[in-house]
């Protein structure tokens, strides 16, 4: 493999699956593409925002040119109004693990990786009326309806995770933590894969986040968000992607572009911090690599 910009990168075996997790803007996609180009394999998305077809620039999805250099799967395969869970992703990834092409699974959504390597509880679908009720509640109200054991195991600042826990408990009468305790065996044993986590220090990552957001703007991210103005629904997961609420506030005249940029960069840095915290708590058995500079 060519130089990738990361220290402590182990020798990648071409006949084993590769898992690459890391915070936003840390270079995960570039590493996945380097492995796929030199050794072969299909790059499979494990990022909850990159599944939507309306967002390419604002979610930093691989470009068409990058997608042409290696097979890419589960990128932009959903419409803007789809509700997509870790269970949905797990069902979509199953056939991609059974083919002859080595999977290279890359992304920043830790829950997708834990579902893959630790298993996922078979929770019944949440009825639409329960989801609609949850959409009308604020975060504190949702948290009040989640049992203590479940609260202790989720990011309580992540509305999507809190709302999911609330919906499950409301719909089934059983806490999410109880469902998770009955988790079936995982689809992929961690030991069977080459599992990498990009350990991106704050002082290295923060400037990259700002530069990347400016590049998104230069490439047309504002126009991408503006094109979805008439469909904007903040209750839908697609419109919670980092950068979308901030740019939509500018598009609708609430704030200046300078303010939108500043808020989006801060939100991205806060998200990266939550990702790092989650990875450190849940991915201790993975192989950690660091940027060279």
UniProtKB/TrEMBL annotation:
CC cofactor: Mg(2+)
Record: residues binding substrate: 24-29
Signal peptide: none
Record keywords: ATP-binding, Magnesium, Nucleotide-binding, Transferase, tRNA processing
Binding site for ATP: 22-29
Record note on quaternary structure: Monomer.
Protein name: tRNA dimethylallyltransferase
Gene expressing this chain: miaA
